[in-house]
Amino acid sequence: MPKVTVHRKAHFNAAHRLYRKDWSDEKNFAVFNKCSNPNYHGHNYELIVSLTGEIDATTGYVYDLGKLKDLIKSEIEECFDHKNLNIEVDEFKELNPTAENICVVTYQKLRKHLPTDLDLKITLYETPRNFVSYSGE
Amino acid sequence: MPKVTVHRKAHFNAAHRLYRKDWSDEKNFAVFNKCSNPNYHGHNYELIVSLTGEIDATTGYVYDLGKLKDLIKSEIEECFDHKNLNIEVDEFKELNPTAENICVVTYQKLRKHLPTDLDLKITLYETPRNFVSYSGE
Amino acid sequence: MPKVTVHRKAHFNAAHRLYRKDWSDEKNFAVFNKCSNPNYHGHNYELIVSLTGEIDATTGYVYDLGKLKDLIKSEIEECFDHKNLNIEVDEFKELNPTAENICVVTYQKLRKHLPTDLDLKITLYETPRNFVSYSGE
Amino acid sequence: MPKVTVHRKAHFNAAHRLYRKDWSDEKNFAVFNKCSNPNYHGHNYELIVSLTGEIDATTGYVYDLGKLKDLIKSEIEECFDHKNLNIEVDEFKELNPTAENICVVTYQKLRKHLPTDLDLKITLYETPRNFVSYSGE
Amino acid sequence: MPKVTVHRKAHFNAAHRLYRKDWSDEKNFAVFNKCSNPNYHGHNYELIVSLTGEIDATTGYVYDLGKLKDLIKSEIEECFDHKNLNIEVDEFKELNPTAENICVVTYQKLRKHLPTDLDLKITLYETPRNFVSYSGE
Amino acid sequence: MPKVTVHRKAHFNAAHRLYRKDWSDEKNFAVFNKCSNPNYHGHNYELIVSLTGEIDATTGYVYDLGKLKDLIKSEIEECFDHKNLNIEVDEFKELNPTAENICVVTYQKLRKHLPTDLDLKITLYETPRNFVSYSGE
Questions:
Q1: Going by DSSP bridges, is the β-strand pair A83-84/A3-16 parallel, antiparallel, or unpaired?
Q2: Is ipTM over 0.85?
Q3: What is the CATH number of domain B3-134?
Q4: Are chains F and B touching, using the cut-off of 8 Å on CB pairs and a minimum of 3 such pairs?
């Protein structure tokens, strides 16, 4: 059967700051600039989850996008939406919540709930002009 | 010469329903949910056709996008636009018109009119949040 | 208190055809062109609901957009989404479901559930290039 | 001379929470839901500033959009971008930073720097689906 | 009948420069900055044409958007698309082609072909961040 | 460390014409159609610069997007923005400024300023419907 990629968009809003606990405020500002503001700032994150695999001959689906929507809701939106990533999300308590790291964490959280014969790719927009993507390499 | 991908966007509006003739309405609803509505529903499909190949040294083009626009119009828009895909498009008389299958059929319809040294990829948005892509694998 | 307009976007997918029962297929085609296809076609309708009124000094809200989201869901999305407007929506059994008429019907369905001191405006995108708006005049 | 409206888009990212200091966390959650998260959340705010007035016969401009861009930068972006609105912006120390109130404050901050013969309107997107507008009424 | 506004989007690409023939290059640069480049620069102009009037009870249309599309094509796109506005468009031979003036000229060119009982408004995007609107005042 | 792609969007406005000096106006028109207009036309070019590499364990960045923004500004925007590509940009004095060629030139101009262990890809929108991409092959 043909190998097709299916994509589902989702979004969440969150606060964060970029910094290392073992650096001074000055060093954090030198490296992360205004993104290191100790009082936090935030974003409307737009997320694209992409799954690649063969079309199921019975249904014509690679993966039911309604099921994928529900999975993104339970695994990602409920954990990240309207949250302070640094304070309230376990994965970022010791990991700097850069777009790169949020993208990798999103990949890891979804990967374990998806069939192993489907390839997964995550694209994450932090702003309309800055975005990142990760496919497990 | 450098190998570049050129992309052209197009769109069409159509009605469809997702179902299998050999299943009951109940089973179709269980699998395809409201997409199986026997009275049809519809979408504004957005299409991206992508061609990869070497730049022609004489023109600076990989492929004339005006020519590609015309090809998409004659092969895809005239067949799908303002149509009921299940009833009026031959390819879907026995094939469930999921986004995945529409994407593969679009690929097949265009592939035979394009030079064999150009790679083809189709991306099809069924809604702004659900989309699929296929490159002939 | 300042008078502010709050807007909420929503969407639904539906099938429809434009025609008059008292006209022949030929006349319907002459007036409504391919939109009169007897087998239907469809759209991803994008909806913007706008409410104008004074800011509530206690909450800082004109109207709770979460409540508006729920109202749009129960009154509009549940009635129109994944439906055939001509066959399954009472309001269009005798009324041609042009974008103009869908916009007016949406206004009427929401108006009765909203406080009378708020002005209501509806904007409805039938395609990214064709849209209509209505504010009760 | 013809009366034309000129519009300029800008954006800023910020953290905020919606709450009243004189209410309990429970009451704040009951009214503002997850937007009242004491650890803050955030948005990519998109801003449209609109000025209406007669075209200047000499330049063909209503107002130099380069000058407007600089004004938005110094008065709005430098105050709001990458900030915690509740903690770091004076106007919101006693005022709940709802989209409505941010829109009115933006209006007031810009109004005093603009010629009195130009009408001003502010549109503020808190998310792609929620936005507000204010024109000084 | 309800009074509704119907909108149609179109676009054209053109070159232009902003300047006054009776000013020196220095003065033109001081006022119009890099937009005065004597070698021209260009834009993808996005156009929205809006017509307000009563719904026709027979058709459910305010104005046939297919007819409006054709009118925009013959009156605007064929005159402006892939043109140098300063050199090739009569209206701008003595008039500075600012977004404001292009918007007013577009209004005047369309106004005379449209029924007098319909109100007309033109919105013109020069870039995604700079746009203007005019409704004949 | 995980290998992630970071993307930064930018834009510039420019005039150009497509033609070969060694061809007649008739031949240029036959091949490049209205894009060969000797008086030029123009576009709002949207640019996406994508860098792929391992996340730096210390910062959580693949590459500082603020630094990338500055590099795009100095190497691309300052050279192309509000310019006539054929006349004012050295690279296009003998090279036809098709979207393909602009994309390759952008790649070459940025490549030499970026670390060799990062892969580079350029995507260039000439219009919202026509775009190209190049990754150095």
A1: parallel
A2: yes
A3: 3.30.479.10
A4: yes
